[in-house]
Amino acid sequence: MSISRITLVTPPSSRKPIEDALSRNPHLTSLPLPRAEIIAPESLSQNTGTAEILRLPEIQAVIDTNFLILPCDLLCELPGESLLETWMVQAAGMIGSPNPPGGLGVWFPTKGDHAVKGEETNFLMTAKIPEATVPPHSGSLRPHLSQVVYATTTDALNDITESKQSFPIRPGLLRKHGRIRMLTTARDAHVYLFPRWILDFINQNPKFESISEDVIG
Asked: Among residues 64, 63, 104, 69, which one has the least CA distance to residue 87?
C-alpha cells in the first residue's frame, strides 16, 4: 500500500493562504508527487469536531479506501513508511479472523527530558497484542504496539472519577483481556491509520464528534 492521494482539509477562510504557500514556498513546491489538493467545505469551521469532519459530504466523496489522518500541528519523529508497514503487517495477520482489521494510532510520552509542564495528557487502557509467528525485524515498531481498549482525556477522566467517586470498569473488559495496563502520561498525536469501514462506523453513529474521544474512546 502507498499514498495515492493527499487532501488538505481546511475552513474556507484559510484556503487562499494555503494555496499561495503550496504554489510559492520552495519547500512545498519541491515535494514529490502526488500533489496535495485542498478541500474547504463551506460548513467547516475551526470548531468542527474531527469525527464530524469525516461525515461531511465533501470528505466522504474523496475517501474510497483505507486512509491516513494527520493533524495540522504534526509533531512526530516516526517515519511514515514505518507506520504504514506496521499497520499492513498487523492487518495481514488478521486475514481469516472473524473481526475486521482495526486502525493504528500514535500516542507519545509526556514525561522525560523534553517534558512540558502542564501539557495536556490522555488516559489510556491497553492490552497486550498476541505475538506474531514471525519475529519482527530490527527497528520494527511491532514490539511497541498495544491494543487500546479505552481512551479519553485526563480532564474527562477527572470528571468521571469526581462525579462517581470511583472509576468504573466494565467486567466484560477484564474478562476479555485479563491484564490491562493504564497510562496516565501519554498524549494523543492525532495520527491515525484507518480501514475504510471506520468511515461507515462513524456515519452510523451521528453523535460522534471527536475521533480520539468518541471513535477510539
From this structure: 104
Q: Name the residue type at position 16.
A: K
pTM of the model: 0.83
Kindly report, residue by residue over 91-106, the tens digit of the pLDDT: 766 555 666 778 899 9
Residue 148: half-sphere exposure toward Cβ, Cα within 13 Å: 21
Burial readout 43-72 (b: 16 or more C-beta within 10 A, e: otherwise) = ebeeebebbbbbbbeebeeeeeebbbbeee
In the numeric block, which cell numbers belong to residue 134? 514471525
Q: How far is CA 44 from CA 66, 111, 168, 191, in A?
A: 23, 35, 36, 20
Residue whose cell numbers read 456515519: 203
Would you say 126 and 148 are in contact if contact means Cβ atoms under 8 Å apart? yes
Grid coordinates representing 135 are 519475529
CA distance 10 to 67: 17
Instruction: For 61, list phi and psi in degrees, rounded to 5.
Output: -70, -25
Name residue 152's beta-bridge partners. Answer: 123
Q: Three-state SS for 52?
A: helix
Task: State the CB neighbour count (10 A cutoff) for residue 31.
Answer: 12
